[in-house]
Amino acid sequence: MSDAPRIHPPTPRALEVEDAPPPRDVAPWEAPPEPVPPHAARAPRLPGAPTPPLDLPLPVLVLTEQAPRVPEAERPLVAARLNLQLSRMARTGGDRLVADTFLRLLESGRLAGLVDAQGRTCRAAAVEALLSLGFPYALEVQPEDLEHLRANTLQRKTQRLKPGAFMAVLVGGIGAQVVHEALFPKGDASLLTSQVGLSLLAMAALWLAPPRTPVYRVGMLLLTLVSLAGAVLAVLGVAHTGLWVGLAGLVAALLAALREG
Q: pTM for the full model?
């Protein structure tokens, strides 16, 4: 009798276990997942840096980025559009996001040098918009921004003065002097005539020259000196000059100085 080990044939149950497919991660009633090609396992990375999150609303961001790049002649138009956009944002109602937008614009310096055709700066428009939101956002306005708003408002008011206003004041004074001379004649009026002629010459310089130019300032200085001398001489009775022309000339010179300032 042989001592060799006896090999038993595999049972049908063992064959079924060996031929069973590996376990799946899906339920038996679901379709098996399709194999993924090796080249599509990872999406390629696109070149360039990722887009950073916007720190400003898109319309405001576009205008602030566009303003430094346009020609200088077109910059007031871009500034006017930006001022209009800021006003619209303020009219929609105040909340933290809107207030932060105005504060971010003021702190970043992106509004520096942007002025519309009416002389209104975008910085002043942002301060006005932030103030219009009311409490508590209006309390966050910085003192230097508030001072800029006041200075810009005063400058816009003075820029509205036209040379025609100066001329109207001076012509009114000349008319009053003519009536005075008709009621109280004093003989020789050569100095009065010279005073009127020099005043009109100075007014012509103020009419034709833009503010802050040498011609404009010479005209303003000439009108001030002639008017002051005529008024003083008329009051003291030293010479026959025009008091009303002098007073009107001084007022016109003051208006010219305000327009330049």
A: 0.49
